[in-house]
Amino acid sequence: MATTEALDDEDIRLQRASAGLVADLQSSLGRILWKSSSTGNRQLHRGARPRDLDRVISLVEPFQEDPQLLDTQLKHIVPVLVSAYLEHLKQASTLQVTAKIVTISHVICRILYTLCKVRGEKVIVSFLNNEPRYLEPILDKFEEGLKAEILSWEEKYISLLWLSHLMLAPFDLASISSHQPAGTASKQTDIKLPETLPGITNRILPICIDHLSCATRERDAAGKLLVRMSLRPDMRKAGLLDALVGWALSFVTTTEEKISNIHQALGILVYLSGLVSSANTEELGTFIADIYKSCDRIINQGNLIFVKSSAVARKLVIKTLRNIVVNCLQAGPPTETFDTSSLLEDVIDFLLQSMGDADSPVRYAASKALSIIIMKLPAELASEVIEAILGCLNEDVFWERSTRNLNAVNALRWHGLTLTLSHLLYRRAPPTTQLPEIINALVLALSFEQRSATGGSIGANVRDAACFGIWALSRRYTTQELSVIDCKEIRATEGYDQAFSIPQVLALELLTTACMDPAGNIRRGSSAALQELIGRHPNTVHEGITLVQIVDFHAVGLRERAITEVGLKAAQLGQLYWKAMFEGMLGWRGIGSLDANSRNFSATAIGRLSRSQPYNTVKDMFDRIRKVLEGTSERSVEDRHGLVLTLAALIDACDCRSGLRDPSKGRSDPLNLLPEYLLELGSQWDLLDSSLNLSERAFTSTALRPELTATAICSFLSALAQFTFHIATLNPTKVESPNLPSGTSSQVTRLLNLCLGRTESTVLGAVSAAVRHSVLLLGDEQRDGLVQLWLSQLSQMTVRTGLRGSGQTIALGSIFFIQEDAMRLRITDVITSRCTTDFEVDARVVALQSLRIIIAAVAEQRPGCNSGDEVARKASVAIQAALNDYTINERGDVGSLVRLEALTTIEHTWKSHILEGLDINEHLYAAVVRLSLEKLDKVRLRAAECLQRTGRGCFDSPDILDASGVSSHEYFAKTLQLLRSDARPTTRLALLEGYTNSAGLGSESVVQATRQALAEKLVTISPETGGEYTLLHATNELLEVFKTHLSNDRVVLPLLEVFGFLLDMQVLNTLIGTDFKWRNLLSLVQKAHYKSNNMHKLHLAMDVYRGLADVPVIRADVLTKLTSMLLHPFPKIRIAAAETLFVVTWNEELKLRDWSMLPKNLRPAVEAVKSNEAHR
């Protein structure tokens, strides 16, 4: 199971964190907007750092998943931004935007835009100040920014929205003073405008017209502003509306692709759409007919095909046509100049065609438009349109009794039509007489699925629309209205008991969808619809309240939990739910799913479903799955994978019910499967000679996805072999060992060997159990033959074969438990040899997994295992080598994969106690301690978990053992407690080696945490005296680590970093005058970079020299070494040496030379430096 599936759902985490996010947002807004002045009053910042702005944005964006969580806090957030912007209007715009700072205007507008994006434009605009006195200041600032070209698109967008909000001023715009002369707008826009327009309008119009052609959100805001301004009574009286509508219509009439771009056309459509939406028939007058004709031209004329090809344009056209029809229907009977009936027919026809549009926004707009239009129609005419929609849904649907085939239908068209029905149900438009056909369509749509040419799934949007439809049906229609509908009238429900009520049938369909649909939003949508159905129609669904509590909105968020937990709990409420879940799991959403994990979950769930059923039902389950399997072709890999996994799960469930797996617990089967029943259910071996008699190609051909076949076969063999071994005790004619017939055993070994050829992790995970259980049913000769074959195959493989032989490696570990001591030692030698660096990293990882199986077998069979001690010794040596694997190649530190696997292996080994008494155990513990402090987070976390779980950790609370906890100062400070005199020297040295690795080469946060903890520890302990662990001990042990790994840059580089840090912080200066051997440190540093070409190491060495120059006993030697490095072959090193010398000597002559010159030209200068130092 993926790690993410073990965590809480994202929305639950958001709900829990929302209070903290909002509090952090409010405090961050205060810091980014305001500063304190010397007088104690707040002053507005003139700018902010981009990273501070990004942090504020990151606090808002998580609410996009659940924006309602912000509602109660918006009144504390948006007014703060509004007041800050109004204060900004008083500032002079002198701050220039750079990479390091942005203006406060940009900060405010970007946050406001983000809030609009998250919560919705209408909600945020309602908080904007609408006092008319701010109209001119905002407009002045806007024009100033446009002229200087310093405004971001977010600033333009918010300014246009705010200006449109201020257009609600209750008095004429002419009363607002403005310096703009009359007629300027006409000149700037080339639009014939009235001469009597006020100054404010003359200033705003050019801005709106310019921004209508933008490709970003400013276009919508400019359209809103233009619509609101042109519909003002004073502007209509002045003739602005007539002028702008005439200009827009003439643009559509005369434009073509050669002279216009798509953004200009979209701007015009935004204006016309907003105009028709906001104005009534009286205000628009004869323009309605002209606007309709313009839309018709866009739809039908060839010269406007460039406009029609845009999904945004089609959506705007649909919205415009919708409002035209609604206005006409509300206006009354048709007139001579405008035939409403003809218009209505054409628009409905166009909307029905748009239901299959390739773009989702267009289909959404068309479905909403058609539902609104139908609501305005007379009842008889509305019913005819609904019949037409249902007729479209019945096209190309083929039925085989109660089974429907939707492969021939258009999925996009179905989405649009289903969404239209859902909108109609939400508005309670359809009469109850049409509900049976509508419910039939919704049930079909709820399980809609098609496969694309590439094998992908199509139809999630159809199912989503169906969820909305059932939710609306439940909400808008009464229980009595639904109860009178007979299930026999609905063909899609023929598979159910015809005595069921409609709410009960819908509950069963919603249950299946909520538990099994591949899409999380559909599972949750079905859960919400089920809750609405049961809540609105009480006492119509069996165990309805309990069902709603089980199929919770949050519980179905994760698919595995929905299938294996929620579905099983629901099935326990009654046989009708059990049958619905079983049927669903057999379908395309269960074991027929495209996703391998979902097939696995469904197979497991079917096995668990069988545990509550009597023998006849379980037998029917076996027979049904076998029948389907017999009809499956060899190329139907996914179907066979799901079916075979299901058989394995059913067999495993029968084994659990038998009580033979663990006789000490007895039989707990309440339905009491009798021994003869168990024997009959266990006779599934004949499948190996029929449906599962697969060719070698099924396990080798990439096109047939052999990893799926191998995983399923291994699971089947494991379950059936284990069950067969257990039920042999029930057979009175059984022999001493339950061997398989020779024909079946040869087939088993053939399939096993074919599976061992696969290297995928899923197959390797299933191989172990398959081998372990299957070999128990084979004869001694067959078992020995298999072991010899696998050993031979591994011996023939070269050391550089990657994952080849992985299956045989796991198999040898799995068969270890049944071998004699000599063969056990041979197997151990082969496995441990593959843990060395002679083999590829992937092979080493698999070998450690096999070694873990061997260790478990030794622990289980001790003390009867004579070879156990020798196996444990060899295994511990291999584990130690793996814990120290730092292989690096072009992929990076691939040795970390081996170290991670070795940590898992040593944890199991310690828990098995097979290493107790071995000297190597101390070194293994030291290696794990080192890894618990290394720089890689995932290795550090895994090692810390290993220590804690085996009782060797030093943490009282497990909360610190997570990805962030093991990178904290608290974690590193706690681990330093091992630096004490009673700890073993090997442990202390390993701790310091790992610690310096993180303190020198870790991430920035890890370096800070480790260095802070180290400095605090070393400062608080005694320098030299006392019986406890002292600073002198710690430094000497650091030197010991240095000396031991002098030639290993992996250790030396971070050590140099740490020594440089400790010297810079004056931590080691307390050792001056003590017994510490400063010359040993100086000597080791010199040896570390002797003849080295590693620039990083050379720079680090000089950092250490800079600190060592403060030590009197070695100062002369340090200066001599630094002076000699002034002639180093690398120019950068010469420059760094000169800088270091200057810092420690303040020799001004060093500043007068160009140390990047050739060394031969620098010799006189170096001699002068030496002479100067000699005379000091």
Please write out the topology:
Elements: H1 10-33, E1 34-36, E2 42-44, E3 47-48, H2 50-60, H3 74-88, E4 102-103, H4 104-119, H5 121-125, H6 135-148, H7 153-166, H8 184-189, H9 199-211, H10 218-230, H11 233-238, H12 240-254, H13 262-278, H14 281-284, H15 287-300, H16 305-308, H17 311-331, H18 340-354, H19 360-376, H20 379-394, E5 398-400, E6 403-405, H21 411-426, H22 435-446, E7 450-451, E8 457-458, H23 460-476, H24 479-483, H25 502-516, H26 520-536, H27 544-550, H28 559-571, H29 575-585, H30 596-610, H31 615-630, H32 637-658, H33 675-681, H34 697-700, H35 706-727, H36 742-756, H37 761-774, H38 780-796, H39 806-815, H40 821-833, H41 841-861, H42 868-883, H43 895-912, H44 920-931, H45 937-949, H46 969-975, H47 985-1001, H48 1004-1020, H49 1031-1044, H50 1049-1064, H51 1078-1088, H52 1095-1108, H53 1115-1124, H54 1131-1145, H55 1159-1174
Antiparallel strand pairs: 1-2, 3-4, 5-6, 7-8
Keywords: Chaperone
Protein name: Tubulin-specific chaperone D C-terminal domain-containing protein
HEAT repeats: 347-384
Structure, described:
The chain has 1176 residues and is an all-alpha fold. 63% of the residues lie in helices and 2% in strands. The protein contains 55 helices and eight strands. A two-stranded antiparallel ribbon has the order 1-2. It has a two-stranded antiparallel ribbon with strand order 3-4. The chain has a two-stranded antiparallel sheet with strand order 5-6. Strand 5 and strand 6 (403-405) form a beta hairpin. Helix 12 runs parallel beside helix 15, helix 21 packs parallel to helix 23 and helix 50 packs parallel to helix 52. The chain is flat. The chain starts with 9 loop residues before the first helix and ends with a helix. The model is unreliable at 1-8 (pLDDT under 50). Residues 923-1097 form the Tubulin-folding cofactor D C-terminal domain. InterPro entries: ARM-like (IPR011989), ARM-type_fold (IPR016024), ARM_TBCD_2nd (IPR058033), HEAT_type_2 (IPR021133), TBCD (IPR033162), TBCD_C (IPR022577).
